[in-house]
Design a protein that fits this description.
The complex is a heterodimer. Chain A has a single domain (27-392), classed as Formate dehydrogenase/DMSO reductase domain (Formate dehydrogenase/DMSO reductase fold, Up-down Bundle), CATH 1.20.1630.10. In chain A, 70% of the residues lie in helices and 0% in strands. By secondary structure, chain A is mostly helical. Chain A has helices at residues 4-10, 29-51, 67-79, 82-92, 99-123, 132-135, 144-171, 174-182, 184-204, 222-248, 255-259, 261-289, 299-325, 328-352, 366-387, 398-411. In chain A, helix 5 packs across helix 7. Chain B contains ten helices and nine strands. Chain B is an alpha+beta fold. Chain B is 32% helix and 13% strand. In chain B, strand 4 and strand 5 (154-156) form a beta hairpin. Chain B is elongated, with a radius of gyration of 22 Å. Chain B has one domain: Alpha-Beta Plaits, CATH 3.30.70.20. Chain B has a three-stranded mixed beta sheet with strand order 8-1-9. Chain B has a two-stranded antiparallel sheet with strand order 2-3. Classes of the chains: A mainly alpha, B alpha+beta. The interface between A and B is large, with 62 and 64 residues.
């Protein structure tokens, strides 16, 4: 690691896109908000570990899972789904136009998993035993959570391998980069497989809560719904994050990519709209198959319709409108609404519809929300730190491009 | 399920069953059943080598408790005996108003008696872990901390538990309780006095019951006793044994004078064992793990550019 700065300097001439040095200005609005939130979060986390989960959360015997599982893990992992969809598009079916988005998305996905794994550790009552299902002295192989935990872990590794060429380029490790780059396809194949299973697996967690989740949200198809919705959740996040990055990191983004930006966004919106149509179709089938109309005149029924019409159908229409009128604004509105819909859906399954019959309700404490915000801000800090140093938005250094073209000449067409 | 793995003692085996100090023969009607069960045991010890999975699933060799709610006096001796046996604080109870509201089991009170007023009169119902034949909590547990012993009790092993609370989400009876106020929390619930059983004693609550509302024994025998009571006094009992099939069968079974929903029981649980609900998904995992990579690699090859 000590040689890193030197290596960067040596390559400085080649890594034009990287030339933007870390910004010197510290008193940005983001920093002013995020630093106190993170510091307060650290204090609250310390309290949580010394005085128990009950000291910072509103969890109870009736509601053992709250915001950290419903939002941080369930919704967060869905939003990280963009990585497996984009790597599928670029590395499996070779759609070149999404290439420019892959690194940022994979990095985002990796960080999301790393930080949600942290959130999960906070939520575990006895986190020092979290190694038990990993090191093998207690394999609960019949547990969906065991499966999800393993897939989280392996997928994080796969994403790290997918992203690692960028690290090697930053450090100027040419030989290692070649090896790591050669592992990309394998990591992608493995990663997509794992993603399919754990996105669905997160939904499957709730299969055994039969009778505790309102029948409008409980269905044996919940794993499939979770998987399909993770496609448009992840891509909506890519659209949203792309929009933000265009403003925040505009000096890092390759100008060539900015011209093709619209084309790429339209492509993503099209996949989103398609996945949402499929999702709505599945929901319609379930509506008929499980005779869901009988619940419609209840508050839960109205809430269900709000989720499906307001935050799946309407964003789907926004995407389609945006495609037809070539309106990036419509697509952006659609992506935000779709993301709200995913948050609603995950919270509905895990909290709102969970024990809907119980007079007691779970409402997260301000401290649970605070810690969640702190985790998100920490993630953004790391993301910013990395994209300012490594070739994430911009083009890889010239030597890496040459390395790839040589490799292709040898191995591919 | 893993009931078959490293059991302390084969439950149908000679040492555990013949040394049946805990099978108290103080009930005349039960004596015949017990004699018969000895015969069954003699036979079953021959077939132990085969260890039939379906017998275990049905709880053939596992123990349980029959609760006759028509006999329960609401004296709460069981609550106090439970607290004493498990080192829990004495349950708080106001003698005058204690039964006016529902008292759930908690992390410091593993069994609770509640009063239910029905058309047919007042009834007291004792609640605790049901010790399911195929427990949801055991299937949920990623670390095998929740463990269905071969004898029947579902126990919790602190050295394995990572505190994920998936057992609480999964349990159809909402039994596992978590210590939210502790830095080193535990999952707490009735363990059917597993240590007492191994010493040849009955569960504390059963031993303390003055009204003989609780009867401890092999689940199969208890089912027969339950049905026998219903058939010999059909006017007195509602014709259903709660726990025979509910959620795949439970170790604790109940009989009652009134339908069980009137006593606060969930009657919508269905008869499938809860682990069945995740089985389909778990079976699909190896298929996806095998087929997805093959398909993805094929797609990758198929979309390769033609050679110039």
């Amino acid at each position: 690691m000590a040689s890193a700065p030197a290596a960067v300097k040596a390559d400085a001439g080649e890594t034009v896109a990287l030339a933007g040095k870390p910004a010197q200005k510290w008193l940005t609005p983001f920093n002013i908000i995020s630093v106190p939130v993170i510091l307060l979060g650290v204090v609250l986390i310390a309290i949580r570990f010394t005085r128990g989960l009950g000291s910072v959360t509103n969890l109870s015997q009736d509601f053992p899972w709250g915001l950290w599982i419903g939002f941080d893990v369930n919704a967060g992992v869905a939003f990280a789904g963009g990585a497996y969809v984009l790597t599928f598009m670029v590395y499996i079916v070779r759609v070149q136009k999404y290439q420019g988005l892959v690194r940022a998305t994979v990095l985002n996905g990796f960080l999301a998993y790393a930080f949600y794994a942290c959130a999960l550790l906070l939520d575990l009552g006895r986190p020092w035993n979290a190694v038990n299902p990993i090191i093998g002295n207690s394999f609960g192989v019949h547990s969906i959570l065991f499966l999800v935990a393993w897939h989280f872990l392996l997928y994080m590794l796969a994403e790290l391998v997918e992203f690692s060429p960028a690290i090697a380029e930053w450090l100027g490790w040419r030989r290692l980069r070649k090896i790591l780059h050669g592992m990309t396809l394998g990591a992608v194949v493995f990663g997509i497989t794992l993603s399919t299973l754990h996105q669905a697996g997160l939904g499957a967690l709730f299969l055994m809560a039969k009778g505790k989740i309102h029948p409008l949200w409980y269905t044996e198809y919940i794993p499939i719904l979770y998987f399909v919705s993770s496609i448009f959740a992840g891509l909506s996040m890519v659209i949203f994050e792309g929009t933000v990055s265009q403003r925040v990191f505009h000096n890092l983004i390759d100008p060539m990519d900015r011209t093709s930006y619209h084309r790429v966004m339209h492509g993503l919106a099209r996949i989103c709209a398609g996945a949402m149509f499929f999702y709505l179709f599945l929901q319609a089938l379930l509506f008929i198959h499980e005779q869901r109309w009988q619940y419609m005149d209840s508050p839960m029924g109205l809430w269900y319709l709000t989720e499906l019409i307001g935050f799946v159908l309407i964003p789907c229409l926004f995407f389609m409108h945006g495609l037809k009128k070539k309106s990036l604004l419509s697509i952006r509105i659609g992506s935000v609404l779709a993301m709200v819909g995913i948050v609603l859906n995950r919270l509905n399954v895990s909290i709102v519809a969970y024990k809907w019959y119980s007079p007691e309700r779970y409402i997260p404490s301000w401290m649970e929300i605070e810690i969640t915000l702190a985790i998100i801000f920490m993630e953004i800090w790391i993301f910013r730190w990395i994209v300012r140093r490594m070739p994430v938005f911009g083009k890889p250094p010239q030597w890496a491009v040459e390395q790839d073209s040589r490799e292709r000449a040898l191995n591919f067409d | 399920m893993n009931q078959g793995k490293d059991l302390p003692q084969e439950p149908g085996g000679a040492e555990f069953s013949r040394d049946a100090g805990w099978l108290k023969l103080d009930e005349p009607m039960y004596r015949r059943t017990f004699l018969k069960s000895l015969g069954v045991l003699g036979g079953s010890s021959l077939s132990l080598g085969t260890g039939r999975a379906e017998d275990r699933a049905a709880g053939a060799h596992s123990v349980g408790v029959l609760v006759d709610t028509t006999r329960c006096l609401g004296c709460r001796s069981c609550e106090i005996a439970c607290a004493k046996a498990n080192g829990l604080p004495k349950p708080e109870f106001d003698a005058e108003t204690g039964y006016d509201s529902r008292r759930p089991t908690t992390e410091t009170q593993w069994t609770a008696v509640n009063r239910y007023e029905t058309d047919a009169g007042k009834f007291f119902v004792k609640r605790q872990c049901m010790h399911c034949s195929q427990p949801a909590c055991v299937a949920a547990c990623p670390t095998e901390a929740m463990y269905k012993t071969g004898e029947g009790p579902v126990i919790w092993r602190g050295d394995k538990c990572m505190g994920c609370r998936y057992c609480m989400v999964s349990c159809p009876f909402d039994i596992p309780k978590f210590e939210f106020g502790k830095a080193v929390p535990e999952i707490r619930k009735c363990v059917l006095c597993y240590e007492r059983l191994q010493k040849g004693e009955q569960p504390a609550c059963v031993q303390s019951c003055p009204g003989k509302a609780l009867l401890f024994g092999f689940r199969n025998d208890l089912l027969e006793t339950a049905k026998q009571r219903i058939y010999t006094d059909p006017g007195k009992y509602h014709h259903h044994v709660y726990g025979e099939y509910e959620a795949g069968g439970t170790g604790w079974i109940y009989i009652s004078a009134v339908p069980f929903e009137k006593l606060g029981f969930r009657t919508d649980l269905g008869t499938a064992a809860y682990p069945e609900y995740t089985k389909q998904f778990l079976y699909s995992v190896p298929v996806v793990l095998l087929l997805w990579p093959a398909m993805l690699l094929a797609l990758n090859k198929a979309t390769e550019k033609e050679k110039d």
